[in-house]
Amino acid sequence: RTKALAIAIDGPAAAGKSTVAKRVAHQLSYIYIDTGAMYRSLTLKALTEETDLDNEDQLADLLQRTAIVLSQSEDGQHVFLDGEDVSLDIRTNEVTSHVSFVAKHRKVREEMVKRQQDLVKERGVVMDGRDIGTHVIPDAEVKIFMIASVEERAERRHKENTEKGFDSDLEQLKMEIRKRDEIDSKRETAPLVKAKDAIEVDTTSLSIGEVVNKIVTIVHQKEMREG
Ligand code: CDP
Ligand code: CDP
């Protein structure tokens, strides 16, 4: 068979990264790694322990004492924080509205990037986040920068929340997404930017299936060439 690759998928909040990355990984029999879940897990712990989110050293110290394990099972990805399944707890509005403040600290990012790179010792991986193509796997064979309009992204999240029976306010979602994009794009350490060699995919008017096919096609072409 052809050589297994590393696929980096970056982009702003709710562009469709994780949904698409999971399906691409499944189709290619690659491993999927959700780096956002790692920042979310640390944020959950920091909120629980009432750590000062502006205090870089305290957060870095907290991370040193924190085990985060991503595991795949039949019913999807599970996230374990110090041995406890927090897969749902890391998706609350409370965590979502604080995570960018935790993720902006250099010392936190350095440790996270180290841990993420340890997970990519072998190829055959799809990793999504904000700095994967630029910092975590700068030599990834395939880099995708996924974007969509703020309106479309907020509507997708709104639909998702409503279907799950959660409270959801479209205008508030738009504000939250804009705010998070701004913090993620303007931070000093590894901000959200398109890597020079990334392919931009605008998913605003594409279905999930269309985006998946587009990326799988790009990967197959690359696999042939890398032989
Ligand atoms: O799924 P969603 O776009 O809402 O967010 P996520 O991918 O779970 O990431 C949550 C937050 O973690 C982002 O808004 C970033 O602040 C941070 N993050 C990051 O800084 N670097 C990454 N590689 C992944 C996430
Ligand atoms: O990981 P990220 O935050 O970039 O986005 P996501 O959680 O994968 O996707 C946000 C929502 O958009 C999910 O409910 C997806 O089902 C939906 N989606 C969509 O409707 N059309 C796409 N082309 C991609 C995602």
Automatic annotation (TrEMBL):
SUPFAM superfamilies: P-loop containing nucleoside triphosphate hydrolases. It is an enzyme of class 2 (transferase). It catalyses: CMP + ATP = CDP + ADP; dCMP + ATP = dCDP + ADP. Keywords: ATP-binding, Cytoplasm, Kinase, Nucleotide-binding, Transferase. Pfam families: Cytidylate_kin. Residues 7-221 form the Cytidylate kinase domain. ATP binds at residues 11-19. Its EC number is 2.7.4.25. It is found in: Cytoplasm. Gene3D superfamilies: P-loop containing nucleotide triphosphate hydrolases. GO terms for molecular function: kinase activity. Signal peptide: none annotated. Belongs to the cytidylate kinase family. Type 1 subfamily. This is Cytidylate kinase.
